[in-house]
# Entry
Amino acid sequence: QVQLVESGGGSVQAGGSLRLSCQASGYTASSSCMGWFRQVPGKEREGVARISGGGATTYADSAKGRFTISSDSAKNTLYLLMNSLKPEDTAMYYCAARINWYCAGWADFGYWGQGTQVTVSS
# Structure
């Protein structure tokens, strides 16, 4: 059974940094497409960053240059390092995974974690 558990969220001032973690079980994180999404109440969930089983990364325009997605095969964990945080980054952040090693855009992520809240104050 696939389980994804996020951690690392919290409250930070604008300009600060946070590193989110997603511990995967029943699933090999480093050999599959995984991603980070975020959602603000009343808005649609949006993709933030994704990484394929081959290590190719893609970022939303809002995340480019500030966020870094990575995975640790030994720990079976996905990370999202977020620097230069802005108030508009405030959201619930979700880890997601696909069965396939390749990513097909922001679609077809069949496994989801429960989310971790990130709050950025100005």
User: Anything to note?
Assistant: The chain has no helices and eleven strands.
